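Regression test case RT-17, inverse folding.

Input:
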């Protein structure tokens, strides 16, 4: 009996250790409204978060509005999403930085637009519809912009000794 209990405790230790020593610098967690993970990435320190939603067969970046109970993305106009939402997380967010150099190797951008910070999708420069897509606050229609901030990450500037879990 003692051996069985010891093995269960040992097994739980290994599972916990594995979960907390992942080498991923950033990751997506399932998000449910009313619960912001401690390591969630804010768009601009204003209470909105970078999200990802599944819509019409694809994943899209989104802006999570926790105080409104939904996330917003753009796909042929403003789309309000209330389920199947992921939230971007990172224990040491010093590796994230904004960049106005549009090499388009990354696909999430942000911009202060109509009085609100918004996260949205970036279509690469090789595509004929290249640009940054978000929604208009007034009527929800698509807005395509060419001036925005790219969200990038550089793991070499992250503080040493950070536990990633």
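Golden output:
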């Amino acid at each position: 009996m003692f051996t069985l209990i010891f093995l269960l405790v040992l097994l739980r230790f290994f599972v916990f250790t594995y979960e907390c020593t992942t080498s991923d610098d950033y990751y997506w967690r399932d998000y449910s409204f009313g619960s912001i993970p401690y390591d969630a990435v804010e768009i601009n320190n204003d209470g909105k978060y970078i999200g990802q939603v599944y819509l019409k067969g694809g994943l899209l970046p989104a802006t999570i509005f926790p105080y409104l109970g939904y996330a917003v993305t753009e796909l042929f106009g403003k789309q309000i999403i209330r389920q199947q939402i992921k939230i971007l997380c990172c224990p040491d967010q010093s590796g994230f930085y904004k960049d106005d150099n549009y090499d388009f190797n990354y696909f999430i951008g942000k911009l202060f637009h109509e009085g609100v910070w918004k996260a949205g999708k970036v279509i690469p420069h090789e595509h004929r519809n290249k640009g940054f897509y978000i929604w208009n606050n007034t009527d929800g229609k698509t807005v395509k912009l060419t001036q925005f901030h790219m969200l990038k990450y550089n793991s070499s500037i992250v503080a040493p000794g950070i536990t990633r879990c």
